[in-house]
Amino acid sequence: MSENRAEIVAGAAVLAAAIGFLFYAMGGSSLSAAAGTYPLKASFRSVDGITPGSDVRLAGVKVGSITSLTLNPETFFADASIAIDSKIQLPTDTAILISSEGLLGGNFVELLPGGAVDVLAPGDEIEDTQGSVSLISLLMKFVSSGSSDKPADPATATPAPVTP
């Protein structure tokens, strides 16, 4: 009988911990497409590493999230819908780009506000976008540019003309 009681207590503790984690996870996503946000749109060439629910940050602080990503069949760009905290008023010349948290970190969307006086209204589109950059393609460019920049062999190099 005491073994049964120990199993029930252990099961109740595991269930309580699971419920606690569930409440913690639900509280962590404080910004949703509900009240307190307004929608914006942006169109990216590439959204690698970004999914609905990804953070939108301004100066490193989460101010919104990606609500949806769809492929535009006319432009072949990824159209993103974004929910921004209603307390944040962005200038019309704001830029939006996909950034990486580091070599092993994930990607997030970063806002770079401009200096315009007018602000973006709900439903407006951010025109200045920069998609994600592939680390592999950057490394390949670095490797290929390093091999073409070899110093010339002094024996075969032609001397530069000297002007008086």
Unreliable residue stretches: 29-33
Radius of gyration from CA coordinates: 26 Å
SSE string, helices as H and strands as E: HEEEEEEEEH
Mean pLDDT: 80
In DSSP terms (H or I, runs of 4 or more residues), the helix count works out at 2
User: How many DSSP E strands?
Assistant: 8
* Beta-strand proportion: 25-35%
What does it look like?
With 164 residues, the protein is of the alpha/beta class. It is built from two helices and eight strands, in the order H-E-E-E-E-E-E-E-E-H. The chain has helices at 2-28, 135-148; strands at 37-44, 55-58, 61-71, 78-85, 95-100, 107-112, 125-126, 128-130. It is extended, with a radius of gyration of 26 Å. The model is unreliable at 29-33 (pLDDT under 50).
Structure at a glance:
The chain is of the alpha/beta class and 164 residues long.
Based on the model shown, name its key terms.
alpha/beta; 164 residues; 8-stranded mixed sheet; 2 helices; 25% helix; 2 domains
